[in-house]
Write a structure and sequence with these properties.
single chain; 498 residues; alpha+beta; Aldehyde Oxidoreductase, domain 4; 2 domains; four-stranded mixed β-sheet; 13 helices; 22% strand; elongated
Length: 498
């Protein structure tokens, strides 16, 4: 017997995310250099804490408060409170999105107070490339990156310096135009290790068994590319079996952009182990010393000769007569290797997002006219898949900024947004075409592949970029904050006051 919740039931029961009420203060010297940050947050846990609920606003959010900047001091206070709502749990960009939103909104506010441009204040306070690795006051060590270069690339692509002309044109058309940016740095933590098993099949193909499970990210394509690159076999000959505990009992699943970092490292290590195991068989079959064999393009060659043997031939020899061949004990009919992706050091994806939008003063309707994302994910295995990750996460980030909201009746507590229509999930016509650039100039230095993780940047960078653009559009009307009064109301609700 099986029960499946409908959408409305999910709104009543499933974990939700992003419910902080925060007050933040940024101290700067006379030249605009950051001196310290103070943050006080009240975090909704729902009726009871589950999974990562308390971890999100405390450690995960607080440790990211330095962002991309030299921040000599940070004081963060978090109060977790119980309410009559569903529990809070992880959601794309967990903790990082809350921290970067608060910080990037605050940096823009400081720039207005100092009569500086948002870009100039960020340039002044960025961690310089030659200062990396850099350990923040919250204990994170950024290993690589070039924040100023990423910023300049994004500003150029967005036409930042020409925005005033577009503002004039929009004003003539009866609209208010604003442009805003946000710079994000996001931890990508490996967490538990991953295992991968590779089998060299007698048809010349390779089967990969891995414990992570793609939910649309395209892991099967990326893993196949990693194996094909290491072994020199066609991508089409690599078969990926993922998330099946009967075939691969060890696996930590998919979360936090960890799959290519952890699963990819395991797959790559298993491919290297397969080469070495096949080397011994190749040496036996060719009556040569293993140290004299060179491996390239899916075949071994005896150095200085034209004697060669392909992986497919080795696989068939093992399938026909495995008993006489130099294979590990227990190997039956195929070369198989298992490798473990170790607990990789945390990596740090980063990037700059720039949003340009218009506001209709008569209706309040917001339309995003242009959106630029320049991201540093280290080495990119598959650019098309990576672009898809940025597009999807950015769509979610824009939705969080402008559309999505859970609303309860203030008197009865009745859920008012029990459908996707009421909740206002973003649709295609709410979004622009995204201009996405992937920069690979500074690969990660803490893992062999140089990857940093790409799945969450859009959900982290988009909300503050959109809101900074909105405030820029509303600046001629004297608006410098759009959620101060709701914050007062939320504080009163949490503190039990009328």
């Amino acid at each position: 017997m099986r029960w499946t919740a409908d959408r409305s039931e999910c709104f009543f029961t499933d974990g939700q995310s992003r419910d902080h009420v925060s007050t933040a203060k940024l101290a700067l010297d006379a030249d605009g250099r950051f001196l310290g940050l103070e943050v006080s947050s009240v975090a909704n846990m729902g009726a009871y804490p589950i999974h990562y609920g308390p971890f999100i606003p405390t450690e995960l959010c607080s440790e990211m408060l330095a962002g991309a900047y030299r921040m000599p001091a940070i004081h963060a206070e978090v109060k977790c409170v119980f309410t009559n709502m569903v529990p809070i749990d992880i959601y794309r960009g967990t903790g990082r999105a809350e921290a970067i939103y608060l910080l990037e909104r605050l940096v823009d506010a400081a720039a207005r107070e100092l009569d500086m441009t948002p870009a100039a204040l960020r340039r002044l306070n960025f961690i310089a490339p030659d200062a990396l690795p850099h350990t923040t006051v919250t204990g994170l060590t950024y290993d690589s990156g070039d924040f100023p270069a990423i910023l300049e690339r994004a500003l150029g692509l967005a036409g930042w310096d020409d925005a005033s002309h577009r503002k004039d044109a929009a004003r003539d058309a009866g609209k208010l135009l604003g442009i805003g940016l946000a710079y994000h740095v996001a931890t990508v933590a490996g967490g538990d290790s991953e295992h991968a098993r590779l089998r060299l099949d007698d048809d010349g193909g390779v089967t990969v068994f891995v414990g992570t499970q793609s939910t649309g990210q395209g892991h099967e394509t990326a893993y196949a590319q990693i194996v094909a690159e290491r072994l020199g076999v066609p991508v089409a000959s690599v078969r990926v079996r993922q998330g099946d505990s009967d075939l691969e009992p060890v696996g930590g699943g998919t979360s936090g952009s960890r799959s290519i970092l952890m699963g990819g490292l395991a797959v790559r290590a298993a491919a290297d182990a397969l080469i070495e195991q096949a080397r011994g068989v190749a040496a036996y079959l060719m009556q040569a010393d293993a140290s004299d064999l060179e491996f390239e393009s899916a075949r071994f060659a005896v150095t200085g000769t034209d004697r060669r043997i392909a992986l497919a031939e080795i696989a068939r020899a093992v399938a026909d007569d495995p008993g006489e061949l130099p294979l590990p004990e227990g190997s039956i009919g195929a070369i198989e290797t298992v490798a473990r992706g170790t607990d990789a050091t945390t990596t740090f994806a980063n990037g700059c997002h720039v949003c340009e939008l218009t506001v209709d003063p008569e209706t309040g309707r917001v339309e995003i006219q242009n959106y630029v994302a320049v991201d540093d994910f280290g080495t990119v295995v598959n650019p098309l898949l990576c672009h898809g990750q940025v597009h999807g996460a950015t769509a979610q980030g824009i939705g969080q900024a402008l559309l999505e909201r859970i609303v309860h009746d203030a008197d009865s507590g009745q859920l008012l947004t029990g459908t996707l229509l009421d909740y206002c999930m973003p649709r295609a016509d709410d979004l622009p075409s995204f201009d996405v650039t992937l920069v690979e100039d500074t690969p990660c230095t803490t893992n062999e592949m140089g990857v940093k993780g790409a799945g969450e940047s859009g959900a982290i960078g988009a909300p503050p970029a959109v809101m900074n653009a909105l405030l820029d559009a509303l600046a001629p009307l004297g608006v410098d904050h759009v959620d101060r009064e709701p914050i007062r109301q939320e504080k009163a609700r949490y503190q039990g006051k009328s």
